[in-house]
Amino acid sequence: MAGKTPNQECNGKCASCATANNCEDPRKAAAGLPEKVNMDVRHVILVLSGKGGVGKSTVAANLAMSLSNRGYNTGLLDLDIHGPSIAKMMGIEDKKLSSLDGKHIDPVRITGTLGVVSMAFLLPDRNTPVIWRGPMKITAIRQFLEDVTWGSLDYLVVDLPPGTGDEVLTVAQLAPNIEGAVIVTTPQDVAVLDSGKAINFVEKIGLRVLGVIENMSGMICPHCGEEIDLFGKGGGKKAAEELGVPFLGGIPMDPEMRKAGDEGRPFIIRKQGSSGENTTWKHVDEVLNNLLGQIQG
User: Fold this and answer.
1) Which residues, listed in sequence order, are joined to residue 8 by a DSSP beta bridge?
2) Do 253 and 283 touch, CB atoms closer than 8 A?
3) pLDDT tens for residues 142-156?
4) 13 shares a domain with 48
5) Residue 38 CB neighbours (<10 A)
């Protein structure tokens, strides 16, 4: 029921209820809570974090590319409306959204199995700020879900802004078939603290936490190839264990990963390094395999 906890009766205020998405109370329809959008997608994966700067968009870009490389029809939706970075990471900054029929938006195609939609494609240049309040963002999110010719998708990966604001709540309310959320953190205590809040938030709105990814988990020395605990290690795993959610693995900090993002080529497609198979690539591939294992059972 809307607003109901084990010790609290329903107050009928669905719009402000954390568990309204999974509520079956008949009063929900009367409260005017929006229905799920009509789109053909089997699995929606939300990628979020408690704070910014933890590499959330890097994870989302590599996850989407990995799914596409495995033959899944995949969509990548950049809902970081005020700070979109997916276009840069995918090497498509110069692209714009178009429409063949004047009614629906066509995603920018990366491969035959991967399409991308981002606010960046609607801006006149990369330095233009998006100065929107909540209602405008909510309208845009609905359009990006419902009015895009995604086709029949196996997966839709949604890159969300940090925190637990309008964008996260809106997509959780509107998107169908949400498989769950991936929480990205770094090892530092402040990032782990915020990731705990994100985990609790996801659970409060009735979604599954697919797992925690610890990004910048150590650093690969560009000279000797050894791992260095630059920012520490293990904070994400500890948080996952304490909160009873899966730990998907750690991804070390690597200059090659930074370079891949700047060049617009997701790191997951760079398997070979100068001295054979890249150590960081192994970590990234392992994390993504663990995530797919959570989704596919």
Assistant:
1) 5
2) no
3) 999 999 999 999 999
4) no
5) 8
3 and 116 housed in the same domain: no
Quote the pLDDT of residue 71: 94
- Crossing angle of the two packed helices 279-296 and 56-69, in degrees rounded to 10: 70
128 and 180 housed in the same domain: yes
Cα-flanking dihedrals φ and ψ of residue 267, to 5°? -60, -30
Per-residue confidence (pLDDT) for residue 24, from 0 to 100? 58
Which domain covers residue 18, as residue numbers? 1-33
pLDDT single digits (tens) 261-297: 889 988 888 764 444 467 788 888 899 899 989 988 7
Q: Is 156 helix (H, G, I), strand (E, B) or coil?
A: strand
Q: Are residues 15 and 110 in the same domain?
A: no
pLDDT of 236: 85
Do 91 and 264 touch, CB atoms closer than 8 A?
A: yes
> Which pLDDT score is estimated for 14?
61
How many structural domains is the chain composed of? 2
How many beta carbons lie within 10 A of that of residue 257, not counting itself? 26
